[in-house]
């Protein structure tokens, strides 16, 4: 039986990565959209050559890897350039994500993506959505401590992400991560048991 796909998402500082890591320890195959996005522009990949053709070698580090900060500066100045980049990368990223999810041998697999709610194409790839939720004050506190960045910078990131209410509107399951790590692990294990039972139902959850 093909595994069914769970989408896991949450805002910055929500503990999404910690939750995903514990699912992985429980043996659940997962694909991280951010890692896939980095992989498709690795040296030697066709997408990087196209990007260099468009923007020049100034957007490369000395070792030939993509200078993400330089590229971001270019595309955010010009909406047309950002659109060109998205049209190049998004189909490649979706193809790689699908291929990686197809390798799953666990009863269900997880697509971890901070932009799951914002991307209709990514939402179509999953059958159930788990949102790791946290009060905004805690998001700010955790992110400022973790990244050593000022509050206004974290608020700017929050503004760019989907509103908390929008994420919750799409959620089938919500894990409120406002306690310690042991509690988070317990909640992940509880949800894991639920997801295994969903897979075991006679009608199944197949792709």
Strand-helix topology:
Blueprint: E1 4-10, H1 16-25, E2 29-32, H2 33-39, H3 46-55, H4 68-77, H5 79-102, E3 108-112, H6 120-124, E4 128-133, H7 136-147, H8 151-160, H9 164-170, E5 173-176, H10 181-200
Parallel strand pairs: 1-3, 1-4, 2-3, 4-5
Helix pairs in contact: 1-10, 4-5
Q: Unreliable runs, pLDDT <50, ≥5 residues?
A: 202-207
Q: Structural class of the helices, strands and pairings? A: alpha/beta
Widest beta sheet: strand line-up: 2-3-1-4-5
Order of helices and strands: EHEHHHHEHEHHHEH
CA radius of gyration is 18 Å
The CATH top-level class label of the largest domain: Alpha Beta
Residue share in helix: 55-70%
Q: What is the count of helical runs?
A: 10
CATH architecture of the largest domain: 3-Layer(aba) Sandwich
CATH superfamily of the largest domain: P-loop containing nucleotide triphosphate hydrolases
Q: Do you know the CATH topology of the largest domain?
A: Rossmann fold
Count of strand segments: 5
Percent range for β-strand residues: 5-15%
> Average pLDDT across residues?
91
EC number: 2.7.1.24
Pfam family, one: CoaE
Family: Belongs to the CoaE family.
Protein name: Dephospho-CoA kinase
What does the model show?
The chain has 207 residues and is of the alpha/beta class. It has two domains: 1-28 and 108-207, Rossmann fold; 34-105. It contains ten helices and five strands; from the N terminus they run βαβααααβαβαααβα. It has helices at 16-25, 33-39, 46-55, 68-77, 79-102, 120-124, 136-147, 151-160, 164-170, 181-200, and strands at 4-10, 29-32, 108-112, 128-133, 173-176. Strands 2-3-1-4-5 form a five-stranded parallel sheet, with helices on both faces. Helix 1 (16-25) crosses helix 10 (181-200) and helix 4 crosses helix 5 (79-102). The longest helix has 24 residues, at 79-102. It starts with a strand and ends in a 7-residue tail after the last helix. The model is unreliable at 202-207 (pLDDT under 50). Keywords: ATP-binding, Coenzyme A biosynthesis, Cytoplasm, Kinase, Nucleotide-binding, Transferase. Catalyzes the phosphorylation of the 3'-hydroxyl group of dephosphocoenzyme A to form coenzyme A. This is Dephospho-CoA kinase. Pfam families: CoaE (PF01121). ATP binds at residues 13-18.
């Amino acid at each position: 039986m093909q595994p069914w796909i769970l989408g896991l998402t949450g805002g910055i500082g929500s503990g999404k990565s910690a939750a995903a890591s514990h699912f992985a320890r429980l043996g659940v195959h997962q694909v991280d959209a951010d890692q896939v996005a980095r992989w498709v522009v690795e040296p030697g990949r066709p997408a990087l050559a196209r990007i260099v053709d468009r923007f020049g070698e100034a957007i490369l580090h000395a070792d030939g890897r993509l200078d993400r900060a330089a590229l971001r500066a270019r595309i955010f100045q010009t909406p047309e350039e950002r659109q060109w980049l998205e049209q190049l990368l998004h189909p490649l990223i979706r193809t790689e994500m699908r291929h990686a999810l197809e390798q799953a041998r666990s009863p269900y697999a997880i697509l971890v993506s901070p932009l799951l709610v914002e991307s209709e194409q990514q939402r179509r790839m999953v059958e159930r959505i788990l949102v790791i939720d946290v009060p905004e004050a805690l998001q700010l506190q955790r992110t400022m401590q973790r990244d050593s960045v000022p509050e206004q910078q974290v608020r700017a990131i929050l503004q760019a992400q989907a509103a908390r209410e929008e994420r919750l509107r799409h959620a089938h399951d919500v894990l409120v991560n406002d306690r310690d790590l042991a509690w988070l692990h317990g909640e992940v294990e509880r949800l894991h048991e639920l997801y295994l039972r969903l897979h075991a139902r006679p009608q199944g959850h197949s792709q």
